[in-house]
Structures
1.
Amino acid sequence: MRVKTVDAVSMVDIFKTLNEFIPEVTLDFTEEGLKISGIDASKVVLINVFLPKSYFDEYDVNGEEKVGVNLEDLTDLLSGVTKNDSLAFSGEDSMLTVEIEGEYYRKFAIPRLQVESVELPQTDLEFPFRAKLITPTFTEIISGFEDLGADAVRFKSNDGKLTLTAYSDVVESTIELSTENGGLLEAEGSDAESVYGLEYLANTTRLKRASGSMEIRFGTQLPLKLRYEMPQGGYNDFYIAPRAE
């Protein structure tokens, strides 16, 4: 098994984002592409990642290869990656080989782990509202909410508009997005309203460099689905459970 991408920074951002939620994952290299899934310890956030083989510049996988990794160890190894670097993974026996090539060549080998499998809930939900927007719009809004010291965000759809209200015991801030004001690229569905923890939303925004556009789906007392869209049809999906009020 050997896979390689010239966009090492985006791959590292994916691993760093996953590490905000789960300490270990199984990299499931299939003939269709790389699949990663997991759920955080609090069982609030479910994650599904898919990067098709066309996302990679080199993808040599026969059948299926599962590689367990500790994300903190992996991201520490990749901390020096720059935008001019390529990143390759290859596996033999009990070790995963990581190669970084740019201004100079670096090679590491880390143990392949046996990651305990966790039964994941079904994600085939019907969401009443869907919106699409550019990723920087969402990540800048969430960053601003963090700066205010908010701890929760109310998502509300009404007449095709999406209103985000961040609040805590001492602060409240509201932003309205629509196709008319340019905040949304697309919007469709019925009226809905739910509240989600700001910390979980913020932990997904490390993907702002890797993703150009994203999709938001939610419904009243339903999980929030954030899909960070990647090149070649890839995606990073986060299902965030609603907060009880």
2.
Amino acid sequence: MCKIITPAELQYRSLAELQALYQKYQQELALSAPGSEARRKARASLENIACAIARHRRYPAPRP
């Protein structure tokens, strides 16, 4: 992963997709070198994904 996932990119993702992305970026963080650009981007993405998950749980989509 070389880019930061923004809140706008996460807006319409399902909870399952968000959780999968979170796991993927956790692995990326674990493999990155301390202080590296990749680590900084993974941490920023994890923060954005965590906020999207919390928002999704707080305001679930209406059921038909």
3.
Amino acid sequence: MTAKTTKAVTAKKTPAKRAKAKPRKALVAGRPEYSPTLEKRQKVEILIAARMAHEDIARVLGITAPTLRKHFREEILTGLAKKRAEVLVAMHTSALAGNTSAQKSMLALTGPGNSPVAPRERITPATAPGTPPVGPVPKLGKKEAQVLAAHTAGEGSDWEGLLN
């Protein structure tokens, strides 16, 4: 080696040369962070709607269950409701187009008694709980008397256990 090359190797970089130097990339150990695709998000929604276990869904995607919960949180929380809504909209559209099977299914799903909210009972001062009747009890009409009789038909008979 010549004196010139030795001097270049051992010479320190000046501040100007350091500013021009390319920054080094940081070395990251391990594998890269998982990045879900739109296709995988849709697949998770479908599998969640089918009530598949989180561990099985993760296995299908080739990831761990904690990774599934971390990256697909929204799909896990709303997948069932979204897919159910999509099916109901499709069924409704089909029913409106004349599909009688879809019409019957919609009526079965939306008919009386299938509401998630209990129907409100009409509370009057005479029927309020814990309120003693004031004055004479009003006379029931024909239909109200029939409904009351139908609800209490089995009381005191062998049929009581079967009707309730």
